[in-house]
Amino acid sequence: MRNPFQVVSVYQLRRRWKAGLLVFAVVIAAVTLWYTETLASNLRRREAREVDRWAMAIQHIVHAADEVDLSLATQIIENNESIPVLLVDDAGTIVSSRNVPWTDATAADTLAWKSRMAAYAEPIAVELVPGMYQYIYQYESTTLGQLRTYPRVLLGVMALFLLLSYYGFHRARRAEEDQVWTGMARETAHQLGTPLSALYGWLTVLEDETAGQANLAPLLAEVRKDLERLQTVADRFSKIGSDQPGEVADLAPLVEHSVAYLQKRLPKGVDLRYELEAGLPPVRYQPVLLGWVLENLIRNAVDALPDQRGRITVRVQRLGDRVVVDVEDSGKGMTAKVRRSVFRPGFTTKKRGWGLGLSLARRIAVQGHGGQLQVLHSAPGQGTTFRLALPLP
C-alpha cells in the first residue's frame, strides 16, 4: 500500500503546479469567452428586433394614407445609426443602404455585402404592393463586432504578457541556479583542497618511513591512486562554470583513459568496450569536465543493465562538422515519458540518488563546450544510446 505521507519530489510538484495553472488559465479563458458570447447573443437579438421595427416602419410609410402622421416611423428609420442594413428590390438592385462601411458601392462590394448579410440573417420581406417586394438585409453593428473581438484580443495580449513574463523569470531563475551551483561546486573544491594537501603530505611521510617495507608499498600506491582520484573530483568541481575555452586536442586519449579506468571498477558481468574512427579531427574541450561527462554516461549505462550484466559500447566518429561520442548499452531502455524528463534536475528512476548527473552532464556539454547531449535512441527492452556531440574548432 502506498504511503499517503510520501514526500513528492520537487520535479513532480512543479509539474503539477504547471498543469494546475494551465487548467486554471483555460477555465478563465473559457468563462470569459462564454460570458462575452452570451452578451453578444443578447445584443444580436436586440438588434434583430430593431431591424424588425425598421422594416415595420418602412412598410407603414409605404401603405400609409396621405393624412397619416409619419413622424414616428421616420424617426425609427433615422435612429438606426449603428446597424448596417440594405434595402434591395426584386431584381437584386440596392434601393438604399444605411451604416454600410463602403466608400464606393461597386458591383463587387454590393455582391460581397449581400452575400455576407444573407449568411448572417434571413432577409426581411417588405410588401410594397401586392406581388411586389423589397428585402431588408442586416449585419452586426460595430459595437457587436467589437464585443466579440475585444475578449479575444485581451486574452491574446494577456497570454503574450504571461509568456514573456514566464520566459524572463525562467531565465532569471536559471541564471540564479547556475550561480548557486557554480558557487557551491567551487566552494566544495576549495574545502576539499585543504585536507587533500594534508593527506598528500602525510602520504609522503608514510612512504619515506616505510621505504624498506615492501609489503606496504602496494597499499600506499593504492592510497595515492585514490587521493589522485579525489584530486580529480576536486578539479572537476572547481572548473564547473569556468569560462576557460579548453584546449584543442585529440579526443581518443580521453576516451581510452576513461574506459580503461572504469573497466577495472565495473562489475564482472559488464562488457565495456570502445570503437574509435581512424583519423578523428581534434576538438576543443576541457579534459577534466568532459571526462566527468563520459564517466557519468557510462555509469548510467551500467545502472540500466539488468542485474548489471550486458554490453556497453563507446563509439567515437566524425559526423559532418562535429565529433560525436555514442554511449550504447543493451539495458532496459526508457519509455517516451522518461526520455522527455531524463535531463531534468532532480529526475531519477533510481531508489537512491539526487538526479543531477545527467543534468550537470548536459550543462557541461552545452554551456561549457558548445555541444549537445541527447538521447539518440531508447525503447523498452531495446537499450539506450546517448550521443555527445562536440563542434570542430
- Global shape: rod-shaped
CATH class of the largest domain: Alpha Beta
CATH topology of the largest domain: Heat Shock Protein 90
Secondary-structure element order, as H and E? HHEEHEEHHEHEEHEEHHEE
- Determine the strand fraction and express it as a percent band: 15-25%
Q: What is the straight-line distance between the termini?
A: 56 Å
The appropriate CATH architecture of the largest domain is 2-Layer Sandwich
Q: How would you summarize this macromolecular structure in one to three sentences?
A:
This protein has 393 residues and is α+β, with helices and mostly antiparallel strands. It contains nine helices and eleven strands. The longest helix has 68 residues, at 142-209.
Structure, described:
With 393 residues, the protein is an alpha+beta fold. The chain has three domains: 10-140, Beta-Lactamase (2-Layer Sandwich), CATH 3.30.450; 145-237; 244-391, Heat Shock Protein 90 (2-Layer Sandwich). The chain contains nine helices and eleven strands. The strands form three sheets. The protein has a five-stranded mixed sheet. It has a four-stranded antiparallel sheet with strand order 2-1-4-3. Strands 5-7 form a two-stranded antiparallel ribbon. Helix 1 (10-63) packs antiparallel against helix 2, helix 1 packs antiparallel against helix 4 and helix 7 (287-304) packs antiparallel against helix 9. The protein is rod-shaped, with a radius of gyration of 39 Å. The two termini are 56 Å apart.
